[in-house]
Amino acid sequence: MSEIPTQMIKDLRERTQAGMSDCKKALQECGGDMEKAVEYLRKKGVAQAAKKATRIAAEGVVAGYMHGSRIGVLVEVNCETDFVSRNTDFQTFAREVAMQVAAMSPQYVSQEEIPAAVIEQERSIRLEQARQQNKPEPVLQKIVEGQMAKWFKEVCLLDQVWIRDSEGKKDIRGLLTDLIGKIGENIKIRRFVRYEVGEGLAKRTDDFVAEVKRQAGQA
């Protein structure tokens, strides 16, 4: 495809938030195939994120989110420069992360934060349960690994599916990678804290996840 229609470039930009020149190049490289161009830009973003991962990110913001008066979240998101910390896309991302924490209540930012003893205990429990199925050991190991992968997606913020993704395909790590590719700086979610009224106390059960999702426009 020699000439890429301007509208196609604009459509790709809308889908990926990449620059116009990057979108045009992606479409040219992929012969005008929109889906392949999206994947091309995503892989490019992953590669850029990997290159920037070792750079110091000591600036940033502490973003907050309140769900009524019952759930409150603070999250620290770091970047390399004060200039980027004031960027609208960066601040929007930080707020999205805070809302994600409110809705999905992760326990850790990433798998690397989980103590080895906790992982071993979770794996041991699942293995013991799996052995009750009287299946060969290799099969049991695969079952346990599948269950652990599902558990990581529940407790690790970066592995959770983004609540605004109606298709359930993009996780927070992917959202972060896209932002790094767009802004061009190393960006990290450093830490978060989540408070919920009555947490740990005997109380009625409310579906706060559904409430937060409704507020995010996903219900």
Structure description:
It is built from nine helices and three strands; from the N terminus they run αααββαααααβα. By secondary structure, the chain is α+β, with helices and mostly antiparallel strands. It is globular, with a radius of gyration of 20 Å. The protein has three domains: 6-52, Orthogonal Bundle (Helicase, Ruva Protein, domain 3), CATH 1.10.8.10; 59-111 and 156-215, 2-Layer Sandwich (Tetrahydropterin Synthase, Chain A), CATH 3.30.479.20; 115-153, GTP Cyclohydrolase I, Chain A, domain 1 (Orthogonal Bundle). The protein starts with 5 loop residues before the first helix and ends with a helix.
Approximate shape: globular
Q: CATH architecture of the largest domain, please?
A: 2-Layer Sandwich
- The rounded Rg comes to 20 Å
| Fraction of residues in β-strands | 5-15%
The total beta strand count reads 3
Biggest sheet: strand arrangement:
1-2-3
Give the count of helical stretches: 9
Spatial separation of the terminal alpha carbons = 40 Å
Q: Which residues sit in consecutive blocks of at least 5 with pLDDT less than 50? A: none
Number of domains: 3
CATH topology of the largest domain: Tetrahydropterin Synthase, Chain A
